[in-house]
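Letters spell out the chain; backbone shape is given numerically. Both lines appear below:
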Amino acid sequence: MGFPLVSALMRLGVKSTTTDEAPINSITLFVVLLCFCIVIGHLLEKSRWMTESVTALLIGLCTGIVILLNTEWKSSHVLVFNEDIFFIYLLPPIIFNAGFQVKKKRFFQNFMTIMLLGAVGSFISFVIIWLGSLQLFKKMDIGFLEMNDYLALGAIFSATDTVCTLQVLNQDETPLLYSLVFGEGVVNDATSVVLFNAIQRFDLSHINSTIVMEFIGNFLYLFLTSTLLGIAVGLLSAYIIKKLYLGRHSTDREVALMILMAYLSYMVAELFDLSGILTVFFCGIVMSHYTWHNVTESSRVTTKHAFATLSFVSEIFIFLYVGMDALDIEKWKFVSESPGTSIGVSSILLVLVLIGRAAFVFPLCFVSNLTRKHQIDKIGFKQQVTVWWAGLMRGAVSVALAYNWFTMSGHTQRRGNAVMITSTITVVLFTNVVCGLLTKPLVRWLLPQHKHSGSIMSSELLSSEVSLAMPLLTNGDYPKWDMAGDRIPRRTLLRMLLMTPVRSVHYYWRMFDDSFMRPVFGGRGFVPFAPGSPNEDIVHQSVLGEQQIVE
C-alpha cells in the first residue's frame, strides 16, 4: 500500500515542475496528504508521544524528501510559500474558531492574566530577542543586517505556537490552564504581528524618545481599533440576523451570512492596516455570544462544526507545508559553504527564545497570583512550567513573518537573509518536533489527570457551595464542610465574606447585557420566533413539554 502512494507522489512531483497542470497536481497532492494526515492522526490518537501537528510536520518532511530525490535535488515542494495566502486564507478560520469556541466566562475571568502574558510578555520576549541577537550576531559572519532586521527578528521569534500543548490539554479537566495557554497564544500572535507591522512602518535605524513614543502609540492604536472593529462587525451580524431572521425561509442564507461576515471582519481590518487576528478573534467571541443564538437550531449545529472543520484543515495544511518547505534546496545552498554559521545562529535564537520565555512567564504569573485572593485560584508552579513550555514552540506565524521580511515572493538572493530563513525553519522544526514529542509525557507528568480532575471537581463543589451560602451568611447559615470534608471555621467564612465583593464586574456586565445589549442584538433567552420558521416545531414541542411537566 505504501509503494503506490510513493510512486504517486513521485509522479505528481515530476508533473508539477514540467507541465502546465502544475496547480491541479499540486492541489491533488496536498488533498491526498491532508487525508493521509487525518487518518494517521486518528490512528495515533492514543500515542504517548505524537500529536496531530507533529504528525503533519513529519509527513511533510517525508514528502519533501521524496520530491527532493525525485527532482534530483532541485526542489522539495510543489507550491511556493506565499505569506499572503497564509495570512488571508489559512489563518482567519483558525483564529475565528478560537474565539467562537472559547469558554467566554473562564476567558474573561482570566483576562488580565492573559493580557499580561500575551501582550506584556510578548513585548518582553521581543526586547530580549532583539537585544540578544543584536549583540551576538554582529560577532558572526552572517552577512549584512540592519537595525530593522534585528527588530524584525524580535517580532518573528516572539510569536508562539501553542497548538501542540492545546491538543494535549483538556478544557474541562484543566480549565484555568487551558484558558491561559489558549488566550495567551491568540493575544501573543496578534501582538507579534502588530509589532511586526509597526516595525515595517517606522524607520528605527536611529532610535530616540520621540520614535519610541510614536511606536508605542501606534501599537496601542492598532490594538484597540482592531478589537473594537471585531466587536462592531460581530454586533452588526447579530443585529442583521435578528431583525431579518433569515432562517424563516432558508437556513443556508443565515449560515452563509455568518461565515461571510466573520471573514469580512478580517479583510476589513487588513484593508485599513489593522490587526486582522485581533479583529476576527473578538468577532468570533461576539458572534458566539449574540449571533449564534439568533439562528435556527440546525444552523447552530452547522456553523459550529463548519468553523471547527475549517480551522482543523487549515492547521493541518500549515504544518504539512512547513515540513515540506523546510527542505527547500534554494535557501540551503547559500549556507552550505558554512553550515556552522547557520547552526550557531539557530542555537543562539533557540537560547534567546528559552530565556525570553522564562523572563516573563514566571514573574508575570507571580504578579497575577498577588491579585488572586483564593489559594485555589492561584497559578501553581507546575502550571507555570506548562505555560512556559507551551510557548516554546514556534510555528507558521514565525515562518510567514520571516518570509515576509527576508524574501521576495518566496525567494532570497542575499546570504544574510538566507541564513535567517534557514535558521527560522530550523528553530521551528526543532521546537515542534522535539518539544512537541515531549509535550504529552511532560503534561501528564506535571498534571496527572486523576488528581487534577478530582481537584477541579472539589473546587467547583466548593465554589458552588460558597456562592449559594453567601446570601445566607447574614442570617448565620454556614456551609458545613470544605474540600477535605471538614467543618469550615466561622473565621474563614467571615474572611471570605470580606474578601468577596458584593457586586463583581461580571454581575454588572450581566445586568447591562440583559437590559440593553440582548434586547437589541439577541442572544440566549432573546431568540426571535416567527411562524413557519424551521425551528417552529422545536419551540412548539418544548412548550408542550414544559406544560406537561407543570401538570
Observations:
- The CA atoms of residues 40 and 55 lie 8 Å apart.
- DSSP finds 22 helices and no strands in the chain.
- The radius of gyration is 26 Å.
- Residues 1-19, 450-502, 530-551 have pLDDT under 50 and may be disordered.
